[in-house]
């Protein structure tokens, strides 16, 4: 896809990865409709790219707001690129989570992108060439303790991406699934950051992820897994999951110790 010809709906645009993707798209000449609950993080980009960036406030868990996005997309003359980047996570053992925590992850991470994609597909199909990009996670391929609910949503998003790609195989709409590894954003709690530090896990900057996503879109990729050794462990988990079980069991005491849930911690995309 030629990014200078792209007309984009980008969800989660005010998050760390979302802001970085927004900036990269605008710099490449794309027309971007940024979807976010809050404008503050986007304000500098809205000022810098007044002719190529506009913002719509929406909570995509509500049908009325999804319809607002559809109307905005129609108003800019249609779209040929949808990037579902909105997401929430919560590092905690399953029994530490409230039902509301679990439901929030399900609503934002899987229900909202599925429903928005369904709503925008007729517009995408009108384009000469179009793409749906779903931003998942390495945890969409590896079940990781402390992230059981989050993993469930990202496994679902990966399955949705694969099935949708096959449904659309006889159309001009491609589907790209992106699996970042740990990324330095405000979505990570202090406990999650402490776990990454303790395990000496590599953590990418949002700009690194955004650059990889832009190149994958331009190259009409089907999937993108970021980071080594994360790509290796995804393959190992598929072939020899008992070896991954063994390795993660050694980490379990640390994960249990660091996992926490505080009453004032909320889930925000």
UniProtKB/TrEMBL annotation:
PROSITE patterns tied to this protein: ADH_SHORT (PS00061)
GO CC, one annotated term: membrane
Record's keyword terms, sorted: Oxidoreductase
GO molecular function: oxidoreductase activity
Ketoreductase domain boundaries: 6-182
Family the UniProt entry places it in: Belongs to the short-chain dehydrogenases/reductases (SDR) family.
Protein's name according to its UniProt entry: Short chain dehydrogenase
Organism of derivation: Pseudomonas moraviensis
Source lineage: Bacteria, Pseudomonadati, Pseudomonadota, Gammaproteobacteria, Pseudomonadales
